[in-house]
What we know:
Elements: E1 26-27, H1 39-50, H2 63-72, E2 80-83, H3 85-97, E3 103-106, H4 112-120, E4 124-127, H5 138-147, E5 152-156, H6 168-177, E6 181-185, H7 189-192, E7 206-211, E8 224-228, H8 230-239, H9 247-258, H10 264-282, E9 288-289, E10 296-300, H11 304-313, E11 316-317, E12 319-320, E13 330-334, H12 338-353
Parallel strand pairs: 1-11, 3-4, 3-5, 5-6, 6-7
Antiparallel strand pairs: 2-8, 7-8, 9-10, 10-13, 12-13
Helix pairs in contact: 1-9, 2-9, 3-4, 3-8, 5-6, 10-12
Cofactor: pyridoxal 5'-phosphate
Keywords: Amino-acid biosynthesis, Aminotransferase, Histidine biosynthesis, Pyridoxal phosphate, Transferase
Pfam families: Aminotran_1_2
Amino acid sequence: MRSVCCSAPQLAGLTPYDPKYLPAEAVLSANENPHDVEQEVRHEIMREVKRVALNRYPDPLANDLRDMIAEANGLDRDQVLVGNGGDELLFNMALAWGGPGRTFLNLPPTFSVYEANARLTNTTVANVPRRADFSIDEEAVLARVAEGGIDYLVVTSPNNPTGELAGETFVCRLLDATDALVMVDEAYFEFSRQTMRPYLGQHKNLVILRTFSKAFSLAGVRMGYLLGDAEVIREFVKVRQPYSVDAVSQAIARVVYANRAKFEPGIRAIIEERARVVDGLKRIPGVKPYPSDANYVLFRLENAGIIWEMLYGRGVLVRDFSRAPGLEDCLRVSIGSREENDAFLRALRDAVMGKCDLEVPSA
Ligand SMILES: *Cc1c(COP(=O)(O)O)cnc(C)c1O
């Protein structure tokens, strides 16, 4: 079928990304940090932003920020690249490694942006689905890359929305087994404390994605970065929009990165709350939470779509995956403040216990 207005044919089956934001008292749907940047750091941000020359183009590659990230990771500037959110870097990967006649290996269920970018760039998508418990089917992935023809893949660790880490041994075997570019998406690395960074020196085909959106409370600013081999980074630089990361965002990110130790107590609190939320979920009959190393928990229950509505009616917004392939009857809750988590658990318990009411047809 021809698409409207004669836009490119690969757009025909695509639906625009929809984060499904709705106003709510407890917004626990987008894995954001429940705490905004603290006042002291905000003041420093204001001072830095005041000094930005707004009439001048920004440094295209944000070299000051790049140097800070490189130094913290024991790397050189040319092994780091920043982007307008991690999302831009994911799109750039599809531009640089995908395209007609090329193949992306996807491990669903996972972050839907990868597949959307592949389709947008006319890249073939090969799937190796996860097992029933959402762990990666490691032997099947290794067998598929051994067949050849894969140009790039993403291993999300921890995986979004399911929460579990990828095995370090598996990722190393994968890196040895293929010349394809292997991105390890570590968007939630600050909550899992696990990283493949020590392996960068040994594997040219490894690239790591990180973001300021989750642990560093900057989802509103749009800042992500890559760590990788200088030659790989060079290919990413070729396809990127020169000024995608604006001067104000660069200034804000520099201050936040320099103050990143101040985010540690908040990260620790989220990790502690995560255990409490999982425990609370386990105590509700018929609710099965999956283990998580990130700042969210996926859980399965009957009538998930209806329960989602009941939670929303109580002012609690979670993410509904109940109609997503492989995630039937699943909802994902982001870890919020202690009060928000309590409100969520209370509302869910009431919704599950009062389930019989739903049988009564509404007028
Ligand atoms: C949030 C997220 C990102 C990046 O998000 P940005 O806000 O664009 O930096 C990347 N990958 C996964 C799996 C995520 O959940």
